[in-house]
Amino acid sequence: MGIIKTDKVTYEYIRRDDEGNVSGITKAVDEVNIDVQPGEFISILGHNGSGKSTLAKQINAILTPSEGEVYVDGLLTSEEKNTWEVRQRAGMVFQNPDNQIIGQLVEEDVGFGPENLGIPTDQIWERVNESLKLLGMLDYSKHSPNKLSGGQKQRVSIAGVLAMHPKCIIFDEPTAMLDPHGRREVIRAARALNDVEKITIVLITHYMEETIYSDRIFVMDKGHIAMEGTPKEIFSQVEKLEELHLGVPQATKVAHELKKAGMPIPDGILTRQELREELKKCL
Amino acid sequence: MVREITIGQYYDEESVIHRLDPRVKLVATLVYIISIFVVNTYIGYIFVALFLGVCVALSKVPVKYIVKGLRPVMIILLITILFNMLLTPGEILWKFGIFRISKEGLKAGATMALRLTLLITGSSLMTLTTTPNNLTDAMERLLRPLSKIKVPVHEIAMMMSIALRFIPILLEETDIIMKAQMARGADFESGNIIKRAKALVPLLVPLFVSAFRRANDLAMAMEARCYRGGEGRTKMKPLKYVSRDYIAYAIVWLYLAGCIAMRIFM
Amino acid sequence: MSMTLDHVNCIYSADTNHSVHALKDICLTINDGEFIGLIGHTGCGKSTLVQHLNGLLKPTSGQILFDGEDINAKGYDRKALRGKVGLVFQYPEHQLFEADVFSDVCFGPTNLGLDRKEVELRAYEALKSVGVDDDDFYNSPFELSGGQKRRVAIAGVLAMKPQILILDEPTAGLDPQGRVEILELISHLHRDEHMTIILVSHSMDDVADYAERLIVMEHGSIVYDDVPGEVFKNVRELERMDLGVPEVTYIMRAIRRIGYDVDDTTTKVDDAVEQILGLYRDKNRKQDI
User: Fold this and answer.
1) How far is A125 from chain C (nearest CA, A)?
2) B interface with C, Cβ–Cβ below 8 Å
């Protein structure tokens, strides 16, 4: 079994009217099966309201499925005795950089998780320094988080999760509120954790440029997995992605249009470097 | 505007006072406040002021910075002095119309002003030299006996520290929402009290909505990081007394004894 | 109805040791009917600059003239000015406060002192022009989706019928679909309603397709102020500022570097495709001969 495995996971939101009667049920996630292997970097793409964040919150046992099962490292998330173990093994980074930093100093925030786990004091410090170093934030350990840039705040949040020594980290739209510079900082950090520390990464986003380096991509739509495959496989299907209101990286778009007009260009061009090489061949 | 208030904002510096255990500082501040009301002679006040002066000097916080922090409370200070001067009956010195200033009033006003200044300077020295987190930690530890009678000491301390973290964020947000509504023609500055109170609705509703959203997000983030109350938690920065803390305690108690002695024997 | 900034400086916390020179000697004229993209990194002063344009902030020195009049002069009606120079803040949906969508949009025009009928007419038109359904008019704005909320918030400013519309990062946090919808809406306001638009962004890709004039700011100063094509020639400098040029422009530059004569200021996918196809056909034709 993979490190994260979902079996027909369904999550329903119950809508209530003003009197509190049930007025309808929305299936945010509908019979989703995914299986993530240890050390993988996977992305979940989808437009707002596609159910991708609801799925993510179930991997961390913030939500438990209405139907179906989620296993993290072999632990069933819906069993109450597993909750804390699951949250330690599958850490989570959220969207809003301000609303997930608890500490008043960078180091205190990173220490928050280990404190909750009951780690002895000297080991907390080791973990905090090691995590901050990995994310290049050690120089800021005595700073107030309020004075940092968005990208730096997110790196502090990642360090805070890392200090809990998780096996995988779920990034729930970590870049949605950042500027391009901050977005690059965060994605670079996620890739480094995957490369160097071999931590399994689940990246949830609606920026397709951020997913091109992942091992596999899942595309969600209306609570279902609409597409699944490697970046090349996914981005070969330009029309289908556009149908799902997602669009593709611009290099891919240009390549696709050229191919449609009859030029001999292969499917699944992801970067402008790839496009340049192909154009060299046929111009 | 709001951001210019510096009273009690932590001033980062390496000094003996900064390094003291926050519990010592908290107790010392309490003792100091009591001492201000124990002494009642000029020599007594000089003694208190000297004690404060030594502490300020040791803390390395520039006097200018402290004085700047006092500015916003000046108005309260002036009002207190004025009331004391005007309303204390006694031997009249000056009189214009219904206002009369008595000798006793002058004295009471001066004493009050002196006491308030000493009090505010002293307590702001504590917050200037102690990070808010240390302060909440100290409170949590000092109040721990109360948790035996079911007072949620840990929760209160956690709430305080979170509130302190979010105050600057919410202040900034207030500023933005205010400007955004002004860009839609809102007017927060003119009109009578009722009109002004009504004008605050477009500011307060979004602010509350946002505060609730933040609270919700934060609760989720804390749970995701395995927070489940004070039980089983370890401390990254546990409070531990060292020799200088015991010495400080001794000095503080001696100081209080000195003040009481002055009160009784002078 | 042009707006002129004459040697505008803005210094925050001027009399302290942590003073910030947020705007440095800005000289600028915004002409009627322009579509300006205002680009710069977080903290470059672009948000500070736009808040000067409707009198929310006062310059430390220098003058801002709207229609020839100093907007910071004593007695100048700044409330009326804010009706003429509409400013949509970042994440504008965070300022919604009324119980229903329609009342919220009425807030702006009501503050301008218009009569009830005119207020409601304007609110209706504004909501229509941003594409909000009649069905949603009397719903709570807090129950709408993120993209819809933002449109309602924009309608709240449009209902004041501004001549200049300034939008600070209007696409922040939206998904690709929402982003395109908002940008199309802005483009429509410019094209069909002849509004002067200032679009503030930190993403070249966002503004390149729409703006007729680009203003690039760094450390409180204007670095470039020109048509997009000219600005994009300074790729190295733009990259140093961590702004870069649009992705399509990069592609065209790459093609140019391998020896083909293409326009490397192109920003639109369609234009790029057309040029590359032209090259491809030329080559095939030559081979046929």
Assistant:
1) 32
2) 4, 176-177, 179-187, 201-202, 205-206, 209-210
Asked whether residue B3 carries a pLDDT value surpassing 50, the answer given is no
CA distance A252 to A266: 10
Do B122 and B4 fall into the same domain?
A: yes
Helix (H) or strand (E) holding A93: strand A90-93
Complex ipTM, two decimals?
A: 0.89
Nearest alpha carbon to residue B103 among B61, B111, B46, C84: B111
- Same domain, residue pair B98 and B197: no
Mean pLDDT of C271-279: 91
DSSP of A161-199, one letter per residue?
A: HHTT--SEEEEESTTTTS-HHHHHHHHHHHHHHHHHH--
Question: Which of A176, A180, A257 has its CB closest to that of C273?
Answer: A257
Residues 6 or more apart from C134 whose CB is under 8 A from it?
none
Q: Are residues B207 and B177 in the same domain?
A: yes
| Pair (B7, B91) in one structural domain | yes
The residue with tokens 């404060």 is B52
C160/B185 Cβ within 8 A: yes
Structure tokens at A122: 């000297």
How far is it, in rounded angstroms, from Cα A259 to Cα A251?
Answer: 12
Question: Residue C54 to residues A142, A173, A201, C77, C150: CA-CA distances in angstroms?
Answer: 39, 34, 46, 11, 21
| Containing structural domain, residue B198 | 133-235
Q: Are residues B43 and B79 in the same domain?
A: yes
Q: What is d(CA A226, CA A237) in angstroms, rounded to the nearest whole number?
A: 12
Q: Are residues B95 and B76 in the same domain?
A: yes
Domains of chain C (ranges; CATH) run 3-234 (3.40.50.300), 246-289 (no CATH)
Count of the separate structural domains present in chain B: 2
The packing angle between helices A180-197 and A150-162, to 10°, is 20
DSSP string, B195-255: HHHHHTHHHHHHHHHHHHHHHHHHHHHHHHTT---STT---SS-----HHHHHHHHHHHHH
pLDDT 10s digits, B236-253:
888 899 999 999 999 999
Give the rounded percent of residues in chain C with a pLDDT score beyond 70.
99
Domains assigned to chain A: 4-230 (3.40.50.300)
Q: Is the pLDDT of residue B5 over 90?
A: no
Contact status, residue B5 vs residue B75, Cβ threshold 8 Å: no
- Pair B116, B157 in one domain: no
Euclidean distance between CA atoms C157 and C161, whole angstroms: 8
Which of B12, B220, B226, B237 to mutate against chain A (most A CBs within 10 Å)? B226
